[in-house]
Each structure stands twice: as structure tokens, then as C-alpha cells.
Amino acid sequence: MTEYHPQYANTITKYVFVESPGMTPSDIAIRAYEISQGVMIKETCFGLQITGKEDDVNAIISHLREIDPTHIFVKDRGFPPGDPRRCRANLGGARPGYFGHEFEISLVRFISKGLGELPKREAGSVPKPPIPFGTEKLDAKKLQKIIESEET
Amino acid sequence: MSLVRIAQLSCGPEYSGVQKEIEEAAKSVEAEIFFPDIKLADIRQGFDLFGLDVRSPDLKLAIARARALVEGKVEADAVFIATCFRCAEAAIVRNELRRYIHENSRLPVVSYSFTERTTAGTLLTRMEALTTIARRRALLAREVQEGLTLGVDSGSSTTKAVIMQDNRIIGTGWLPTTGVLKSAEDAIELSLKEAGIRREEIQAIGTTGYGRFLVGEKIRADLIQEELTINSKGAVYLADTQHGPSTVIDIGGMDNKAISVQDGIPGTFTMGGICAGASGRFLEMTAKRLGIDITELGPLAMKGIGKTVPMNSYCIVFGTQSLVNALAAGSSPEDVAAAACHSVAEQVFEQQLQEVDIKEPVIMVGGTSLIQGLVKAMGDLLRVEIVVPPHSQYIGAVGSALLASGFIKGS
Amino acid sequence: MAKVFIYPTTSLILSDLVARFGHTPLSAALQIREHIQTPGLESPPLQITPEDPKRGLKWAAVEVPAGVRGRMSLYGPMIEQADAAIIIHDADFSFGCMGCARTNELIQFLLRKSGIPILDLRYPRTEEEGIEFVAAVRKFLQELDGGDA
Which domains does chain B have, with CATH numbers? Predict the structure, then answer.
């Protein structure tokens, strides 16, 4: 058994995803570099990974969010950037979590729309989202009508 | 030796603390593990086309990755499928993927269901078998023994030697293993004597079994190979069923193997050896208690009805006690012998056979295959007619001698 | 600030919205980070060792597969801490941490059993559903104690 000594102890890493018609990951990277003090910033195809002390990382993220609030999305990451245990080059293929990103990123434009649109609408005017489970059963009378109409 | 690239299809090893064990086992046989790279769109399509509507996303990913391998979108030398032990959903996927890969590609595939206690050591023989199939496909394709070859099976209980010439067994030797090298030398002498040839005439040598490395080095073997590959090959050769599916069961003195074989190449297999109550050793103890030779146990058991003897334990100690009690309470030696055979068969069935596909023919090999009562008990449990080929007790030695003929110079 | 369990626990969308509306998302990353940053014995890739499935026994019996118990050792403590939960039901493409359907069923059951407020959703499929989705999340989070939304 080999002993394990963690790198980047007492730091956090967050993903910053940019899915915007008017801004690329490198645009936001430039802004991040400008305000980064003592934190590590890594540019990726979808945005950035920011690693550092929790307060520092959060401060940078608050700034970045202001640039384009409805098109920047943030989440925590367990690993520091470029960790060989998660790196595509070492694994041969993407780590499993990558597919989850790929899936959600394809839907994130709807969330952007929601974030942008919501303040414009009156409180309580937005209907509830669809019920997520179960399927509505067809009323027996309706079914009877369908059968009758097919028979005639 | 070039690295064998093994594609891993799995659900759960990272969360069970065994991923490192898988990678270490691969490394120790000059192989490396990798995860086939596919896109999300491929996952959706691959999963839908395969048609097995499982719920677990990681199993969907495994299915899609298997398709990418079969379609040649991702290159690999071998495939290792690993899922959690006791997961029914994963067991179905594991079996179907193994079958799918086997039927649609030339990739060797081995599957395993792990627990958090699985170690690299446990996985080693499987990885060795997997890389052997990847590296030595041409060798394993051999169906006929040629020239004059020697095979030695240095097992934990007994050492076997076989000499073959032009596809026939011409000499055999069988001894209890006392010292690994000494027993091997003596068994070889016996086989040479029976064959009526001199050692120098032997053209190639193969070794297998626990002592394969030690013996192989001493007698300068051309082929040193683990017993899963060798026994699979040997069993289908002796049973003359070299093509298509089969199942090989080897209840040994100390451990048991159940191998699901396709065209003579092992697919899934289980190896067990935790409990002596599920081994040939239990039958030896039973014979001793009954005051008979082990060779008499089988015929005796054939005459008895095992069900009439109460067996409250599988354990070799308590199990033997149950048999003694039964004798004292008036059970016949025939019934007691049958009960002992049934007990071993049932335990192997419950602990091991449920993890492999039982495809006919089911071939029993190894020394215990000569105990008819055990063969009958196993056949009753599996509801199949079990095949015991001639020379089944020499399985490892025959497989080694057969494959060794690929090493004859000029062949 | 309330601690909100998000399902899938790897969700970017939920992580972002919960934090954006002033609460703390409980995501898989936090548990993984703790494993990655704790010294011990080397067990790549996630630093989950064979000891972790044993810790998972608190939430699933020994007859439950190791992978389920190992995952529960990550999620069990988060479920116990959670003040509320948001569950997306059609999370069919969340692999890795959410890769096991049996674990996912157990997580949802334990969340419901705990009696905390739960918002059930599915992924939006249109812009209008996107608006409804965000509105529902915001309303749910506003009604929790301590949010700034």
C-alpha cells in the first residue's frame, strides 16, 4: 500500500461554464486573469477552472458572473485541474462526469432564457413546470369515444 | 513484450476501492487498462441499438463502449468487464456484453464481479489468461497435437505428467505433490517409462498449475501457462468439442474452477478455494471415515440416496461430523457417500456455477471427475448429462502437451 | 443559507441555480474533494478505499453491492445534512457518481423519508419550460429559510 499525500490541500476548484452567443471562454479567461490574485486559472474548451482559497475563488466568480449573468454557470469540482487521475490522456477516454456536462450544456440555453425572462414577467404569472413523474392516464370515456370513432 | 491494451467496461470499481487493484493486476502482466473514448451521442445511439433497456447510466456507458469496440471505432487488444458482485442488473449486462463481444469481434474478454475485498492477486490469473489470449491467439487455435511433447501439471494436491505423440497420449504419470520439483521429476519419469522413450527425444515442454514457474524453469519448459487457459483447451480437446460453447468444471483438491468456454477459449470463469467443504479434500475425508479408498467412493455413492442423510453444514469439520452421526444413527455407507458427493456439488453450484453461463456440453475434469457419485450429483443439480472425457484427470498436463507442440522448432 | 441536496449530484444547472439564489448546493464534488484532499492510502482515481463501502453500511446492508455502499458513503452524509432537495427525474445521462440506478433509487428514498422539502422537476425541453424551471427553483429556494433570493 502506497501512502497518499494530497496536492492542493485546503483549496477549492470551481468550473465556470460559458454558454453565450456574445462571449467565448477566452474572453472570460482574459477578465479572470486581470483580477486573479494568487489563484490558478485554467482555460478549457467550455470555460475556466479556478483553483485557490475558497474566498478568493468565490470573489473572482462573483466578478465574472456580473459580466454576463445569464450565460455563466458555476459548479464545484472535486479534483484540481489537470489531475492525472481524471485526465483524458491518461484514462484513454473521458471521465464519466464529462458526459453529464455534455448533456446539461446542451440544455443550458433554456436556463439562460429562464434567467433572462423571469424578471420581465409578473410574479405568479409563470405556470408550474410539467409534472416529472408518472404519465397521465387516458380517461375511460375518452378511450371509448376514440374506439367508437375508429369503428364508424 | 509490448503492452496489451485492455479496455475496461465497468460499473462501480472506483466506488468500491478496487480500481487500483484492477490496474495493478493488469500492470503485472504487461498490460494497461484504458476507457474507450466515445461521445455522448454515441452513448445514446449505442445503448438504443443494443436494445437492453437497463437503468444504470454507467451500464449504458459500458454497453455503448462495447459497441464502439466491436465496431472498431476504438482499438483494443482485450476487454475486461467488471461490475459489482450481487447486482442483478449488472450481471445481465456483464453476461450479454461478454457474449456480444465474443460473437462479434476477435477481442478476448473476461468478466469479473468484485466486492470491496477484491485484490490484484485475485485478478491476476484472470488478467494473465486475458493477455495470453490476446498475445497467443495463434497458439490457442491449435487443435491437434504434433511431434513428441511433454506436459506437466504441478497442482497443489497432485502432480501429473503426460507425454503425447502425434495426437495420442502415450505416457502418463500421477503422484501426490510432496516437493514441487521432486514430484514433477518423478511424475515425468513415470510417464517416460510408460511411453518407452528417453527424455532427450522430447521436442517441446509445457507446464501449468501452482508450481508452473518453478517446474517450468527447472525443466526448461517452452510454455509456462496458467491453468484456466490450459484446462479450457485440454477439456474441449479431450471431449472432442473444440468448436462452439461448453462449460468446464474442475473441482480440485484445494480450489475449484468453473469456466465458460467458447471455441476452446475461456470466457467467464470463477475460481474458488475458500472452503474445504467444497473440495475434493472433503471427499477424501469421507472415504477415510468410511474406511474405503477414494477410488471406491464414487461407485459406492452411485448406489446410495444422499437425501436421506441429514447434512446441516457445508464445513469440512462439521460436515464430516454429520456423516459420522448419520452412520451412527444407522444410515448406510452408500447413502453417506452419496450425501457427501451431493454436498460438494451443491456447494460448488451455489458458490460458483451461478456466476458462469452453463452451456452444454458440461465437461468435468480433474481427479474428482473420476468420482462418479460427484459427477452424478452435479448432473442432477444442473439437470444436464455431464461429459467426463478419457484422461480427464490429466487435463492440465494434456492441455500443456497439446499447446507445447506449437513450440516445436520448424513447426 | 440552507443546504440543498441536488439530484443529479453532479448537475451544473442545479449547482449554479442553488448558489445563484443564495443557498449552498450539496454536490458530489464536495465529497470527492474531501477524499482527494485527505492523506491516507493511495487509491486512485477517487481516493475511495475498501474502507468506504464499509462506511456505507450505515445506509445499506452488507448484502447490497460494494459499489452502492461506496457511493452511499459519499451521499449518506450529505442526505443527513440536507435542509431541502431538488430532484431532476430524467437524469438518464449522469454517469460516474450517479452511474448506479440502485444507488439513485436509495438516495431518492432516503431524501423523501427524511421529510425535508423536495422540489421534483424534469429537464426543460423548450424555452418556455426553461422559464418555468427557473421560476419553480427560485420560488422553492425563496421559501427556504435564510436565502437571499
Answer: 4-135 (3.40.50.11900), 148-228+395-407 (3.30.420.40), 260-387 (3.30.420.40)
